[in-house]
Automatic annotation (TrEMBL):
Lineage, highest ranks first: Bacteria, Pseudomonadati, Pseudomonadota, Gammaproteobacteria, Methylococcales
UniProt keyword list: ATP-binding, Nucleotide-binding, Transport
Organism whose genome encodes this protein: Methylomonas fluvii
One Pfam family, short name: ABC_tran
Listed GO MF terms: ATP binding
SUPFAM superfamilies xref list: P-loop containing nucleoside triphosphate hydrolases
Ranges for domain ABC transporter: 7-236
Name used for this protein in its record: ABC transporter ATP-binding protein
Record SMART domains: AAA
């Protein structure tokens, strides 16, 4: 197994013609065969970064090696290794699904392979629509065609730019299933998303980009363990109007209805303090009838990361 990164990004910056700096000194390695999710708010620079890797956008500085090729010098070789599912479909309105997907394959110099194209169309539930013109398809079907086109030349790296934007649950699940299958077959997948649950569900690693800077790259599980918080929720037997002052030192909040006490604690800490807290509550005659705990989601972590990074910038 080749352990070299499949994509290696070094010192990449991008300043657009108007002077706007969309990417600031990005350094990132993508591992062969992983699912990497790039998270960021609108305008953070995700699409620009994908564009630079695919050779569609020229970097102002830095170098990128993708599948062993320099993305500027060996542009064609890089494009042949990459499948890109863009956010929108622009062309081919009058073509049939079959012709469009087969044509995409030919564009990259691959010999025709009807059996492979058929498999892609079947996997995406497009087989029944193979003779339909693109313009006659629903929005969701068009998205499926975009994915089929990107897969037509059997790329080793697949980029999905906001794959879930505006698609229904069924397509989203079909897509996730396909992405997992592709990964199992050795394809490296990089996706950008606003749907944090998508990253939480799918990704092996996560990168967060904020105002053109890559502020964190981390294994998803590590990220969630490192930055995650847990909460213990106690449903009180008797609602209270405020937290007793004797408990002021604890990280407690009271829900508005006064019926639940919420204790936040760090998953990293060896001592969570739960046992002591429960003893204190009982000493103060605070009784509860139910208790549950929950972990912060990737979304909570993402929001706090972006806040922190904005705090350090200002
Ligand atoms: N061709 C361009 N010329 C000038 N500025 C651009 C150009 N393309 C993008 N930008 C700017 O660069 C920044 C990053 O844009 P980009 O599309 O990479 O963000 P994004 O993270 O993909 O956002 P979204 O989630 O909205 O798709 C934005 O402020 C955008 O306005």
């Amino acid at each position: 197994m080749n352990n070299d990164p499949i994509i290696s990004i070094r010192g990449v910056s991008k300043t657009y013609a108007g002077g706007f700096q969309a990417l600031k000194n990005i350094n990132l390695d993508i591992k062969r065969g992983e699912i990497f999710a790039l998270l960021g708010a609108n305008g953070a620079g995700k699409t620009t970064l994908i564009g630079v890797i695919c050779g569609i956008v020229n970097a102002s500085a830095g170098t990128i090696i993708a599948d062993g090729h320099d993305t500027v010098r060996d542009y064609r070789a890089v494009r042949a290794a990459i499948g890109l599912v863009p956010q929108e479909l622009h062309t081919d309105a009058f073509e049939s699904v079959w012709a469009t997907v087969s044509f995409s394959r030919g564009l990259f110099g691959k010999p025709p392979n009807p059996a492979y194209v058929e498999k892609v169309l079947r996997d995406l539930s497009l087989w029944d629509k193979r003779d339909a013109k693109i313009m006659s398809l629903s929005g969701g079907m068009k998205r499926r065609v975009l994915i089929a086109k990107a897969l037509a030349h059997e790329p080793t790296i697949l980029f999905l730019d906001e794959p879930s934007a505006g698609v229904d649950v069924e397509l989203r699940h079909d897509m996730w299933r396909m992405v997992r299958e592709l990964r199992a077959n050795g394809t490296t997948i990089i996706l950008t998303t606003h749907y944090i649950e998508e990253a939480e569900d799918m990704a092996d690693r996560i990168g967060v980009i904020n105002k053109g800077e890559l502020i964190i790259v981390e294994d998803k599980a590590v990220l969630m363990r490192k930055l995650g918080k847990k909460q213990l929720m106690l449903t009180l037997r008797q609602p209270m109007s405020e937290i007793p002052s004797e408990l002021g030192a604890w990280a407690l909040t009271l829900t508005e209805d006064g019926e639940r006490l919420v204790y936040s604690f760090d998953t990293q800490e060896e001592e969570t303090g739960i046992a002591v807290l429960l003893r204190r509550l009982s000493e103060h005659g605070i009784d509860f009838k139910d208790l549950s705990s929950s972990e912060s989601s990737l979304e909570d972590i993402f929001v706090s990361l972006v806040h922190q990074s904005q705090g350090t910038q200002s």
